[in-house]
Design goal:
Anthranilate synthase; 8 helices; 13-stranded mixed β-sheet; alpha+beta; 26% helix; globular
Length: 423
């Protein structure tokens, strides 16, 4: 693999996309180093190697990334024999939650393999013409070993106190909602092979978007924004209840969630923030009157799919910047809620709850919210897991702790050494 360099040190990129036979499970194609993934229900994109990248930080990180990407696309030489969203020139990206935190990045891989709607393809990207690589399964991933979990800097008891403080501030300061996050630390005997938890997450949560970008991985249920040939879609999740595993009981819980005034209030704030952010970019917007209940293996969410038609030519990355942070991960009013988070949360979120996904040369792309996620640290021997909860005036700290524990389950289970049954 070539050493990553910034785009201004390169000549024009040469890009070739060509159809291929179905390669099988996309995640099985990944090498054990420098791999990227965005997979949903078996389809999606995976990539490896780095042709160029843009590390960025600060309040202007989205604008800088959009400018960089636009310049890169404008000078690229592209032959695309597939002509579908995700073919041609593609970058994977992940952005921090907060404006004052470093670590955001856009990366252009050397190789991208994609599949959607029964069509598979390979894209090769470089500074000259190169032959397509062999697209076949690589060696199986190493399973995590000796995993031990511990609370992050804020233990569960203290975190409940922060929830109580947030409730008091909501009542006192006339806030509607604030989202508080916590982390769990996993310590491993040897560096993690991220392909192992990715395969577990994709297999157990096929309706979520399983991702990996630059050490940040997870399986998010929330699509911040998808732009596909002018159609804009955003999935809003807010309002959560833990599943029991008893189908009859869970059906009753789903009904109670759909009627819960607390959860409906939380959902309304998130839905409104998304609709307001998309309105300047879209026509013919549709916001359903009532949410539906999204059933996942570990939890159920109130969910709404907001749709619209692009009217001003914005890219998927620009739309993601307009939407971040939504009320689902920040609160309402957003500026005041984010300020309260910085005051009391006592957590460096990094890229947790920030946009993660991909963009292509036409501006189409998919950006999820980095939820049900974790960050690999310390040469791969430390993994920080994150979860957050929407706090409103009648939130109960113990209930919010239980909800956060449920949201930690996907990645926590994916780090267990149980054998894979389906790659």
């Amino acid at each position: 693999m070539s050493n990553p360099v910034l785009a201004d040190a390169l000549g024009p990129l040469v890009v070739r996309s060509a159809p291929i036979d179905d390669p099988g499970a996309l995640l099985s194609l990944l090498p054990d180093d420098d791999a990227f993934a965005w997979v949903h229900g078996g389809d999606g994109l995976v990539g490896w190697g780095r042709v160029t990248e843009l590390p960025t930080a600060g309040a202007g990180r989205f604008d800088e990334a959009a400018q960089w990407w636009g310049d890169l696309c404008a000078h690229a030489v592209i032959r695309d024999d597939v002509q579908t969203p995700g073919s041609g020139l593609v970058a994977f990206g992940s952005f921090t939650f907060a404006d004052d935190t470093g670590g955001s990045v856009l990366v252009v891989p050397e190789v991208v393999v994609g599949r959607r709607d029964g069509i598979a393809w390979v894209t090769v990207i470089g500074t000259g013409i190169s032959a397509p690589p062999d697209v076949s399964p690589t060696s199986p991933p190493r399973q995590p070993s000796g995993v031990r979990f511990a609370d992050g800097p804020v233990d569960s008891f203290t975190w409940q106190g922060l929830v109580a403080e947030a409730v008091a501030r909501i009542v006192r300061d006339d806030l509607d909602k604030v989202v508080l996050a916590r982390d769990l630390v996993a310590m491993l005997d040897e560096p993690i092979d991220v392909r192992a938890p990715l395969a577990r997450l994709a297999g157990e949560y096929p309706s979520c978007w399983t991702f990996h970008v630059d050490g940040f991985f997870g399986s998010t249920p929330e699509m911040l924004v998808r732009l596909e040939r002018g159609l804009v879609t955003s999935r809003v999740l807010a309002g959560t209840i833990r599943r029991t595993g008893d189908d009859k009981h869970d059906l009753a819980l789903a009904g109670s969630l759909a009627r819960s005034s607390k959860d409906l209030e939380e959902h309304e704030y998130a839905e409104r923030s998304v609709a307001d952010a998309l309105a300047p970019h879209c026509t013919n917007m549709f916001v359903p009157e009532t949410p539906f209940v999204l059933h996942l293996p570990n939890v159920m969410h109130l969910a709404t799919d907001v749709t619209g038609v692009m009217r001003n030519g914005a890219s998927a990355l620009t739309l993601a910047a307009s939407l971040h942070p939504s009320a689902a991960v920040g609160g309402t009013p957003t500026a005041e809620a984010v300020r309260l988070i910085s005051e009391i949360e006592q957590l460096d979120r990094g890229r947790y709850a920030g946009p993660v996904g991909w963009i292509d040369g036409h501006g189409d792309g998919e950006w999820g919210i980095g939820l049900r996620s974790a960050q690999i640290e310390e040469d791969g021997r430390i993994v920080r897991l994150f979860a957050g909860c929407g706090i409103v005036a009648d939130s109960v700290p113990a209930d919010e702790l239980a909800e956060s524990e449920a949201k930690l389950i996907p990645v926590r289970d994916a780090l267990s050494p149980a054998p894979l049954t389906d790659r």
